[in-house]
Amino acid sequence: MLVHAVRAMAASRAVSLVVVVAPPDDAAEVKTLIDSHALPERTEFLVVPGGDSRQESVRLGLDALPPGIDIVLVHDAARPLVPVDTVDGVIEAVRDGAPAVVPALPLTDTVKQVEPARTPGEPEPVVATPERARLRAVQTPQGFDRATLVRAHETVTDNVTDDASMVEQLGLRVVVVPGHEEAFKVTRPLDLVLAEAVLTRRRLNDGF
């Protein structure tokens, strides 16, 4: 999954450097893994040890960036199949002036807001039904103006769900661009089956 996620970023001609933030004890192993899989010659990569939280790991990745990089993407290795068009769409929106950009899809299911159960398995009362047309399921990579993301990590510490939410807390604009169904998050056994099916189709159609 990690190799596919790195390749998904490297597939964009706008991406010149991929910083992989690895578990602190596994950084050397991760570097060896990526070294053994060919990436486009135009794309460099670094492997840096991460921290105890997602936010700290992103900050350590930011710290590893050299000068001269003004647009930063934050991507989850758990979304290994994001198409290059989605990556390019995020980058283009940041280039057009948005300080923060997230790819997202409209929801197909009705969503209920509930009062969380105090005991696992206990029925949960519904307190509201948000208007589905105004909701989006957010994916990655999320894209940022570098200075904006650095500022967010220097000042925001509470209620952090993702990097875009940190920029929201600064009072800055976050925009949504179209996501893609194949940029799903692999978290359950069924997701692995779906990922294998996508990869099989890509190999047959595109030689991926």
UniProtKB/TrEMBL annotation:
Entry's Gene Ontology molecular function annotations: 2-C-methyl-D-erythritol 4-phosphate cytidylyltransferase activity
GO annotation terms (biological process): isopentenyl diphosphate biosynthetic process, methylerythritol 4-phosphate pathway
Gene designation: ispD
Keywords linked to the UniProt accession: Isoprene biosynthesis, Nucleotidyltransferase, Transferase
Protein's UniProt name: 2-C-methyl-D-erythritol 4-phosphate cytidylyltransferase
Homology family: Belongs to the IspD/TarI cytidylyltransferase family. IspD subfamily.
Organism: Streptomyces aurantiacus
Signal sequence annotation: none
Pathway: Isoprenoid biosynthesis; isopentenyl diphosphate biosynthesis via DXP pathway; isopentenyl diphosphate from 1-deoxy-D-xylulose 5-phosphate: step 2/6
Record-linked CDD domains: CDP-ME_synthetase
PANTHER family xref list: 2-C-METHYL-D-ERYTHRITOL 4-PHOSPHATE CYTIDYLYLTRANSFERASE, CHLOROPLASTIC
InterPro entries: IspD (IPR001228), IspD/TarI (IPR034683), IspD/TarI_cytidylyltransf_bact (IPR050088), ISPD_synthase_CS (IPR018294), Nucleotide-diphossugar_trans (IPR029044)
Keyword Nucleotidyltransferase: yes
Pfam family, one: IspD
Keyword match Transferase: yes
